[in-house]
Design a protein that fits this description.
The protein has 209 residues and is of the alpha/beta class. The chain is built from six helices and 13 strands. The structure holds 1-O-pyrophosphono-5-O-phosphono-alpha-D-ribofuranose and uracil. This is Uracil phosphoribosyltransferase.
Length: 209
């Protein structure tokens, strides 16, 4: 599978195990998702371009590096994607945040768009779409399509857990989008849940059912 990056840092893998466990309650689930989002942000930004600048330290002049290139934008898919925003902003505080609201129709499993609000300059930004779950791929594809329709040119997708079916679906529709995961799981079940997965990410984050 091309363009898939599984971020296998030991801290990410350790925390993901606790995120998956049934007995992990809302408070811990939320905190762990937040922490893993920060760790994933660290990994996903490894290839950002740098440029050299001249600075003055208290001791001497120096050539030092700062981030160059496009500014970043974070786009959580509502609602579960919200659980990863603060964790990412810990490391990328200047990023702008857009929102795409989608839910999966429980019968058809097709995504239904109900809200879109984006930074005005998305075509000049490198966008990171975030959602804990990539299951059938319908929601991610719809969100990416929505961004492209509004001018976005550079998009990455970052999820905690994905099913191979979802990864394949996004590759088919958007081969230009690199996918970053904490884990690539085994399969989808007949209800469209990722196996073994972590259950319903939105419900576990917000304590709903
Ligand atoms: C979940 C999840 C993804 C989507 C993944 O959201 O957060 O957005 O399902 O499934 P897919 O790949 O098959 O589209 P859900 O629709 O449950 O909405 P929520 O975030 O409001 O709970
Ligand atoms: N959405 C979730 O929240 N969990 C899954 O396993 C699949 C879709």
């Amino acid at each position: 599978m091309g363009n898939v990056h599984v971020l296998d840092h030991p801290l990410i893998q350790h925390k993901l195990t606790y995120i998956r466990k049934t007995e992990t309650g809302t408070k811990d689930f939320r905190e762990l998702v937040d922490e893993v989002a920060t760790l994933m942000a660290f990994e996903i930004t490894r290839d950002l371009p740098l440029e050299e600048v001249q600075i003055q330290t208290p001791v001497s002049e120096a050539t030092a590096k700062v981030l160059a290139g496009k500014k970043l934008g974070i786009v959580p898919i509502l609602r579960a994607g919200l659980g990863m925003v603060d964790g990412m902003l810990n490391l990328i505080p200047a990023a702008k945040v857009g929102h795409v609201g989608l839910y999966r129709d429980p019968e058809t499993l097709k995504p239904v768009e109900y809200y879109v609000k984006l930074p005005s300059d998305i075509e000049e930004r490198e966008l990171i779409v975030i959602d804990p779950m990539l299951a059938t791929g319908g929601s991610a594809n719809e969100a990416i399509e929505s961004l492209k329709k509004r001018g976005a040119k550079q998009i990455r997708l970052m999820c905690l857990v994905a099913a191979p079916e979802g990864v394949e679906e996004v590759h088919q529709e958007h081969p230009d989008v690199d996918i970053y995961l904490a884990a690539l799981d085994e399969k989808l079940n007949e209800k469209g849940y990722i196996v073994p997965g972590l259950g319903d990410a939105g419900d576990r984050l917000f304590g709903t059912k």
